[in-house]
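One such shown below:

_____
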Amino acid sequence: MADSRIEKAAKILVDYSAKVKKGDRVMVLADPESASLCQEVYKLVLQRGGLPNLKIGLPNLSYTYFKYANVEQLKTFPEVSMFEIKHTDCWIAIGATNNTKELANIPQKKIAIRMKVTEPISNYRVDKTRWVIFDYPAAAFAQEADMSVQEYEDFVYGATNIDWNKEVAFLKKVKARFDKAKMVRITAPGTDVYLSLVGRTAIIDDGQRNMPGGEVFMGPVETDVNGHVQFTYAASYTGKEVEDIRLEFKKGKVVKATASKNQDVLTQVLKTDKGANYLGELGIGCNYKIDRFTKNTLFDEKIGGTIHLALGRAYKEGGGKNISAVHWDIVCDLRKGGKIYLDGKLFQKDGKFIF
């Protein structure tokens, strides 16, 4: 008998997030570990009259590519992939890995080269298709979160299979306050940073792109971020954990960046391109059903009572202009001693909003 939680998650992804309708060309990306959910999504796409294009990844394939691909291969643009995305209406990605550290020992330069080359495909997918990303509760994710698979399944579905209409109503209240603000100040132990929102609009993550949703995010003015941030949690980049990240900003640009572990990774990310040195996003975590750090950014950036800053590419919907092959979210917990001020007025204290 199928897990009813999987059936509900599939309906949310197909009907609520991607809104699949008759005639839609739907690309479904999945891994063998997520076969049960993938099959349910595939079935629902067919039942809704969609035209599924299923792509199943193989374990360790990314490692094989980056280990053996030469520079010429890395720099060759994948024309077929571009053709496919241009003929896709909906894009549903179901992540499930058997090894979260698969690319940990791959040189960052090789990954950066490929990211730059494939950036037009990523941009087209973000700007021109209806898309949603979901991470299946695979064993490797559970292990990273220090949970049993059963505990992690409860955690994932508890944050996903919820009343999204009710969640959206709350997110709209938060958005309304940020839309009125011109300047945000965020303070916490080791953190005091100012970000301008002049001319920018906040966007709610209602689960129609990332599932679970549960954040309000915006693109700060690229040249008007000043101060410093001490991030609470390690941030993973292509399988390498960078710990105790501290960034200093002046006129929007990162002028100093330190980490206690994998400093070289942080340095290399900032060298990817010019835009990697500026912020593309300020996100406010609002999903209070996500209450712990699990080393999975898709969930961690939504933790109720946290904020995250993303180095690199901005989302254009809210007026963000930063361009980069990078979009790297890093989380700062405000639940113990943190505050958010909007135009000088306290809006959040210790992770709780003040309306």
Notes: Residues 108-128 form the longest helix (21 residues). Residues 164-353 form one domain.
